[in-house]
Amino acid sequence: MPIQAIEPRRLYRQIADQLRTLIKAGEYAVGTRLPAERDLAAQLGVSRPSVREALIALEVEGLVEVRMGSGIHVVARDAAGPPVEAGAFGPFEIIRARQVLEGELAALAAERMAPQQVDGLNEALALMEDEIRRGITPIRGDRLYHLRIAEAADNGPLLRAVTELFDERNNPLFEQLGQHFENRESWSLAVAEHRAVIDAIAARDPEAARSAMQAHLRNSHDRFADNWPPGEALGASTR
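User: That's the sequence. What structure does it adopt?
Assistant: Structure tokens below.
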């Protein structure tokens, strides 16, 4: 059963379904290694991030295992873990949505935030830095930072949208991806990017704030799309 090109709709689920079928049929036997991401992307006619989301979904289900420096290995023919919910958003889709929404909210914050609210952003950033120093994944500080920027719009639906998008980090796909790609170095880069947004907001420069937030989320996207890294993750709760 050869790999077939697929249409660009619900990409990661289509890719995961096709690979799952091939594994179950024995085309990729337990103990063997799947083709490299770039080769799968070329055969399927899709992007590498879409392939990565599909592989992460299969890893959540217990069908494959990512081994640093060795590739993606088939470890079971039948799923041992919980199936990924049909409506689960892919991590890259979530980040792209946040980039559009939160860039505009950062611009609004630059127009509206009072000095004490900017102090609140610095407090959230300090919490992130403290958590990183203690070897804890700095989700509390990160969440507080992004929600405080959203609060500056004084718009309940927008705040809810940002909250729900951020909390999608708790879905199994995002958590599994984070286990491979989030570490002390990546979080230190995120802190520096957060600081650039605060500087633009404090300077009351909406365009600079928009650009800095969009750059931060674009960089987050690219870090998740990078080559499988050897970095050491932070803490037991690392995402």
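The chain is about 65% helix and 5% strand.
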